[in-house]
Specification:
The structure holds three protein chains of three kinds. Chain A is an alpha/beta fold. Helices cover 27% and strands 28% of the residues of chain A. Chain A is built from eight helices and twelve strands. Chain A has a six-stranded mixed β-sheet, with helices on both faces. Classes of the chains: A alpha/beta, B alpha+beta, C mainly alpha. Chains in contact: A-B, A-C. Chain A: This is ABC transporter ATP-binding protein. Chain A: InterPro entries: AAA+_ATPase, ABC_transporter-like_ATP-bd, ABC_transporter-like_CS, ABC_Transporter_VariousFunc, P-loop_NTPase.
């Protein structure tokens, strides 16, 4: 978490909490996202991923704490010009034609930053005609229009809430391909939420795990994987420099995911490197929090 | 931004315009029909001379009978259509954005919430006000000969609403109500229902308090001169009889023993009635009442629009 | 898959092999069968990323690995170009072996085998006959 602080984060949450009335949605969430990362925000449904993202564009306000997005406070100024956000249901005007949707986006983005030609070409690449009505598009086509409009803002930070949910595999790959091509071209930062790790495993290089209303783990995926080991066997013991994140026992067989405090782990370290899914699952099943010292 | 609001509310705005156009045509046609019928009956003077009594059994009777119903209908239609315009253009203004969640799109672009709200309101409220104005002017011109024929003043219900500045005030209330509810409720249907009910409640309260805001005038007629009817210059509200000592006698307490052939006033005199007293809201109170009631409507609308703005600032 | 390039990338998500190594292996295979020849340009990172939806760093990592092995060369502003083909007998691509393999595949198709069946069969035979020999993938 700390190794990125020097490289001016694009997005930073500082002890952010959010209550809806008496219900606590997020508690004391802190993490920073370095520039140029493609980050996965992972957590079970209802973990607060949507709320976390909505607060970054001013659609919701933190009950406590502060969010810094490209140097702006969205709670005060609304969505910063350099940020694009696509909600999970890809909201667009259903009665509009695609061309009218493009015009709407142009009208809503005065000030010269809007790149209508870029958005139009992304839509054309997807094989969607500008005369088609939004309401008649398939879920995948709607998602592609929504992403095209988001990229037309030429964002430095793109926030996507469950971008792949309810899409077929082809649409998933096309949408992630479009987003990642934009990342390659512009170096923009991406934070996308998902409740399924495998969907985004190959696309992301950064991870934020949200569970129990808190940020349980965050950092670069390579570093995180290198910093954890899986021990498996009848009598699992851990070394002094390790902390058990999660241990599951079936009969006499125990599998434990441990955090290695002396990274990078050399080849001489015992146990195996976890997969991303194993890592995420272990943290989501951890009894209390990322500080599992008590366990 | 204006284009976007226009595009979203296009159907509603065009529907409103069509209703206004049809109504204006109907009003003009009604006046022309009335005039040509009066001319063919030789009763044209009934439509221009307020002093001429064409409401009785003699002159103008056919004219009166044929056009009383249509006049009532037109009055009622204009009275109801004007607030309906506010509802039509504003019902889906904010509610549909939250209903279809496009608020999450529009509020994450580079337009401030203040500008978004203001453009939404201006682009729909101004046409609605214009529609109310056009309907008011058309009704004024088209219904004038009807009012002369039926000897109808401006102070009574329906007359009051179609004269003066009530029509713009009326559209302002329904519009503001719909715009405010639209930021609170997530359903256009709920907004429609809420606006209709809310507007009816507000209108009922205004009507029921209207004639008590300013003191009524009283006209006293000695019982010997009372022939069962009396002309007051305004809206008649109440009547009573007075005895020799000036005491009030409710109409229900006298005349019970009058025979069918007996002269009614003579009978009343026998029961001790010396005068008939008529209470009425005078026509001269028309403008003060218009200003008071429209003022209430404007203040109320401002509060509603203010709440809509405050709510829109926090919408998400 | 990246069409229009002489190498076609695809990622096997369940294989357990790191993605960048899969890319490296596929370039090697293309070099081996002659689909890529010295002087050819590898697809740009953007094209690969767009086609198979993987993180751009993965492509860079794969290309760096190929560069380290001396198979390709990055020319700034121009792209990444193939330096060497991987040696193999000439007969493999256009010779007798290929023709016979094509005949065999035609028979398999005629017998109603699916692509998966054929690949599984092929992999099984290769595995058994080459047992103990290290592959370079």
């Amino acid at each position: 978490m700390n190794e990125y602080e020097a490289t001016d984060p694009v997005l930073r949450y500082d002890a952010v909490s959010k209550d809806f009335g008496r219900r606590e949605a997020l508690r004391d969430c802190s993490f920073a996202l370095p520039r140029g990362r493609v980050a996965a925000l992972v957590g079970v449904n209802g973990a607060g991923k949507t709320t976390l993202l909505r607060m970054a564009v001013g659609l919701a306000r933190p009950s406590a704490g502060r969010i810094d997005v490209l140097g702006e406070d969205p709670a005060a100024t609304g969505t910063p010009a350099g940020v694009s956000y696509v909600a999970q249901d890809k909201p667009l005007y259903r009665r509009f034609q695609v061309r009218e949707m493009l015009r709407a986006a142009a009208v809503l983005n005065p000030g010269g930053r809007w790149d209508g030609a870029h958005a139009a070409s992304l839509i054309a690449d997807a094989g969607i005609g500008v005369g088609q009505r939004i309401g008649e598009l398939s879920a995948g086509q709607r998602a592609r229009v929504a992403i095209a409009l988001a990229l037309g803002r030429r964002p430095g930070l793109l926030l996507l809430d469950e971008p792949l949910a309810e899409l077929d595999p082809l649409a998933r790959r096309e949408i992630m391909g479009t987003v990642l091509a934009a990342v390659t071209e512009t170096g923009m930062t991406v934070l996308l939420s998902s409740h399924v790790v495998t969907d985004i495993e190959d696309a992301c290089d950064h991870l934020v795990v949200l569970g129990d209303r808190r940020v349980l783990l965050d950092g670069g995926i390579d570093e995180l994987l290198a910093g954890h080991r899986i021990h498996s066997g009848p009598a699992t013991s851990t070394a002094d420099n390790e902390t058990v994140v999660h241990r599951s026992t079936r009969g006499r067989h125990t599998v434990a995911l441990v955090r290695d405090h002396t990274p990078p782990a050399g080849p001489e370290a015992s146990g195996s490197t976890p997969t991303l899914e194993e890592l995420v699952v272990a943290y989501l099943h951890a009894p209390t929090s990322s500080d599992a010292e008590a366990a | 931004m204006i284009w976007l609001v226009w595009r979203r509310q296009r159907a509603a705005l065009l529907l409103g315009a069509a209703l206004v156009a049809v109504t204006v045509v109907a009003l003009v046609v009604a006046r022309l029909l009335l005039e040509s019928r009066a001319a063919s009956l030789g009763d044209s003077a009934c439509l221009t001379d307020p002093a001429l009594d064409c409401t009785g059994w003699g002159r103008g009777r056919e004219l009166y009978d044929s056009f009383l119903g249509p006049h009532r209908f037109l009055q009622f239609w204009v009275w109801a259509l004007v607030p309906l315009l506010g509802l039509i253009v504003a019902a889906t203004l904010f509610a549909r954005e939250t209903e279809e969640r496009t608020v999450g799109f529009v509020l994450t672009q580079s337009v401030s919430r203040t500008r978004w709200w203001t453009t939404n309101i201006a682009t729909t409220l101004l046409p609605a006000l214009a529609g109310a104005l056009v309907l008011g002017l058309a009704a004024r011109w088209a219904l004038a000969p009807f009012e002369t024929l039926f000897q109808q003043g401006r102070i009574g219900p329906l007359g009051f609403e179609l004269h003066g500045i009530w029509l713009p005030a009326s559209v302002l209330i329904s519009f503001s109500l719909a715009a405010a509810l639209g930021t609170w409720l997530r359903s256009s249907l709920a907004v429609v229902v809420g606006t209709v009910l809310g507007w009816l409640v507000i209108f009922a309260v205004l009507v029921y308090t209207r004639y008590d805001i300013l003191p009524s005038s009283v006209q006293i007629v000695p019982i010997g001169e009372y022939d069962g009817t009396v002309d007051v210059d305004g809206l008649a509200r109440d009547m009573a009889f007075r005895g020799a000592g000036g005491e009030m006698i409710p109409p229900g307490e006298v005349g019970a023993g009058c025979g069918p052939q007996e002269n009614y006033t003579a009978c009343l005199q026998r029961d001790g009635v010396v005068a008939a007293e008529f209470e009425y809201q005078p026509e001269s109170n028309f403008w003060p009442l218009q200003l008071i009631q429209s003022g209430i409507a404007i203040v109320l609308s401002s509060v509603l629009l203010g709440s809509s703005y405050v709510r829109a600032r926090r919408l998400g | 898959m990246v069409w229009g390039w002489r190498v076609e990338f695809r990622i096997e998500r369940r294989s357990g092999v790191p993605t960048y190594l899969q890319l490296v292996a596929q370039v090697r295979r293309a070099l081996r069968v002659g689909a890529l020849a010295p002087g050819d340009r590898l697809p740009t990172a953007r094209a690969v990323v767009e086609a198979i939806a993987i993180n751009p760093n993965t492509v860079h990592k794969a290309y760096r690995e190929l560069e380290r092995e001396g198979l390709v060369e990055a020319r700034p502003g121009k792209g990444t170009f193939v330096l060497h083909a991987l040696g193999r007998p000439d007969s493999v691509t256009d010779g007798v072996l290929r023709t016979r393999l094509e005949d065999w595949v035609n028979e398999a198709v005629a017998a109603g085998l699916t692509v998966d069946d054929v690949q599984a069969l092929f992999a099984d035979v290769v595995e058994r006959l080459y047992r103990g020999e290290r592959t370079d993938e």
